[in-house]
Structures are given as structure tokens and as C-alpha cells.
Amino acid sequence: MNLPDDIDARVRALAEERGQSVSAVLVDLAARGLEQLSRPIEIRYSEVSGTPCMDLGRRVTSEEVAELIEED
């Protein structure tokens, strides 16, 4: 399998961190990604602010939000 250099480096670093083979890490990442495809996006509203929210599988940082706003 040929991966882009940046992805290859991230997978190898993750494998080293976990003490797993690159193949095992790729299988885990593929399984997680495929699982997310089967779940519909659910929009809910924050109990604190009332703003719409959705689960992306991880927390989105303020810096990431600022970057996205700048791109618009």
C-alpha cells in the first residue's frame, strides 16, 4: 500500500507509540473510520448555550475553529 508521506509518518509514529505493527494500526484506523460511516450525523443543541452541536469523534480545538473561520 502506498500512503502519502505525511500519512505514512503519522501511522508509523502511532504504531511506535502503541507498540504495534503498522499493519495493526492501519486495520484499527480503517475499522474506526468505517464504523463512523454507518452512523448518521446527529445535530443536538447545547444545554448551556443552546447552540447546535454535532459529534465529530473528537474534540475540536478553538484554534481549529479559528482556522476554519479564517478560510471563509
| Main pleated sheet | 2 strands, antiparallel
Specify the overall morphology. extended
Compute the average pLDDT.
89
Number of strands: 2
Q: Work out the radius of gyration.
A: 16 Å
Give the proportion of residues in helices.
55-70%
Quickly count the helices: 3
Q: Low-confidence parts lasting 5 or more residues at pLDDT below 50?
A: none
Order of helices and strands: HHEEH
Strand line-up in the sheet with most strands: 1-2
Structural category: mainly alpha
N- to C-terminal distance: 35 Å
Query: Beta-sheet strand percentage?
Result: 5-15%
Tell me about this structure.
The protein is mainly alpha-helical and 72 residues long. It has a domain of 33 residues. Helices cover 56% and strands 8% of the residues. It is built from three helices and two strands. Helix 1 packs across helix 2. This is Ribbon-helix-helix protein, copG family. It comes from Brevibacterium salitolerans.
Tell me briefly what this model is.
The protein contains three helices and two strands, in the order H-H-E-E-H. Helix content is 56%, strand content 8%.
Strand and helix layout:
Blueprint: H1 5-18, H2 22-37, E1 43-45, E2 52-54, H3 62-71
Antiparallel strand pairs: 1-2
Helix pairs in contact: 1-2
